[in-house]
């Protein structure tokens, strides 16, 4: 049985959000730990061309490094008018690891003199839950329905993508969440409100990362035969 899951992110805001999305697993005595808990400071080079490729790359990197079941994600902003930029380069859109304020200013600059329709955008994420072969073999061999299929000693892998549709505002929100610069610019289509100004209830309903995590938790419970 899984005893620990490593949340592979150095972003404090993202760490708390992923913990929130996985908290149901704590009822089954699964401990959610951070990179700080295992004293890992380094990061892999994100060479993937898609969010899915980068999420898998990071999950494998940290899981193989720590030998722990690992969950990671990759995501960002997609603006069709700008040929789907910034995409996988959302944090490094300026050619380096830019600050929240730099990214907000640059986005507004790139969309200067555009119409509302041209400012259509998506916040997208892909989450990856990964167990290396050895760990997968030890855990899954304990469950009846997976004993036969696990003879090939395959990786245990779950990938889940989600996104939110909206548009980029003509000015930024006065409310900011550190670590999430694009949320200060993103108007959520469903509520016609800045992402940063959603109520807790609204946020819970549309948050793409939490939606993906809910589906991952369900799949983990099914795979490991965790009873409700």
Short description:
The protein has six helices and eight strands; from the N terminus they run βαβαββαβαβββαα. The chain has helices at residues 12-22, 51-66, 100-110, 133-140, 200-206, 208-223, and strands at 4-7, 31-34, 70-79, 85-86, 120-131, 156-168, 186-188, 193-194. Strands 1, 2, 3, 4, 5, 6, 7 and 8 form an eight-stranded mixed beta sheet that branches.
How do the helices and strands line up, and which of them pair or pack?
Elements: E1 4-7, H1 12-22, E2 31-34, H2 51-66, E3 70-79, E4 85-86, H3 100-110, E5 120-131, H4 133-140, E6 156-168, E7 186-188, E8 193-194, H5 200-206, H6 208-223
Which properties best describe this structure?
alpha+beta; Maf protein; 8-stranded mixed β-sheet; 6 helices; 30% helix; 22% strand
Model description:
The protein has one domain: Maf protein. By secondary structure, the chain is α+β, with helices and mostly antiparallel strands. Strands 1, 2, 3, 4, 5, 6, 7 and 8 form an eight-stranded mixed β-sheet that branches. The protein is globular. Residues 141-147 have low confidence and may be disordered. The two termini are 15 Å apart. The chain contains six helices and eight strands. Helix content is 30%, strand content 22%. The chain has helices at residues 12-22, 51-66, 100-110, 133-140, 200-206, 208-223; strands at residues 4-7, 31-34, 70-79, 85-86, 120-131, 156-168, 186-188, 193-194. Helix 1 (12-22) packs across helix 6 (208-223).
């Amino acid at each position: 049985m899984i005893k620990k899951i490593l949340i592979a992110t150095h972003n404090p805001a993202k760490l708390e959000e992923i913990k929130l999305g996985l908290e149901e697993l704590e009822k089954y005595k699964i401990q959610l730990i951070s990179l700080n808990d295992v004293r890992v400071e380094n990061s892999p080079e994100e060479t993937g061309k898609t969010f899915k490729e980068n999420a898998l790359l990071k999950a494998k990197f940290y899981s193989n490094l720590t030998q722990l079941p690992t969950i990671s994600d990759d995501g960002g902003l997609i603006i069709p008018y700008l040929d789907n930029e910034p995409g996988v380069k959302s944090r490094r859109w300026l050619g380096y690891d830019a600050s929240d304020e730099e990214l907000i200013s640059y986005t507004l600059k790139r969309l200067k003199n555009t119409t509302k329709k041209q400012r259509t955008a998506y916040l997208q994420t892909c989450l990856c839950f990964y167990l290396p072969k050895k760990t997968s073999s030890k855990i899954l061999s304990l469950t009846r329905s997976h004993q036969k299929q696990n003879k090939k000693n395959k990786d245990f892998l779950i990938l889940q993508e989600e996104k939110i549709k909206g548009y980029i505002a003509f000015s930024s929100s006065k409310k900011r969440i550190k670590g999430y610069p694009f949320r200060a610019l993103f108007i959520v289509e469903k509520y016609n409100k800045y992402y940063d100004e959603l109520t807790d209830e609204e946020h819970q309903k549309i948050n793409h990362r939490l939606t993906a995590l809910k589906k991952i938790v369900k799949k983990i419970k099914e795979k490991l035969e965790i009873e409700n």
